[in-house]
Amino acid sequence: MEKYVEPKAYISPEMKKILEEGEEKKYSGYGYHGGGRPKKDEEARRKTISISGTPTEVEKLKELAEAAGKTVSRYIFDNLIK
Hints:
By secondary structure, the protein is mainly α. It has helices spanning 13-21, 55-67, 72-80.
């Protein structure tokens, strides 16, 4: 029976340089920890909810919102939360 050998992970040349020199990259793009869009204040953040209705009810809601010049979400909040 052969002895198990742990496979070595591939480390890119750039990462080797960072590890050897202790250099730390400052990423700010999408997909990196700490990157991306800056956080907004609590009031500016959005939550998503879902409502259900018959196709006729949903179409009527969309028509009412469009007639008022609002999105469906804005129409609902403006008319129900006072």
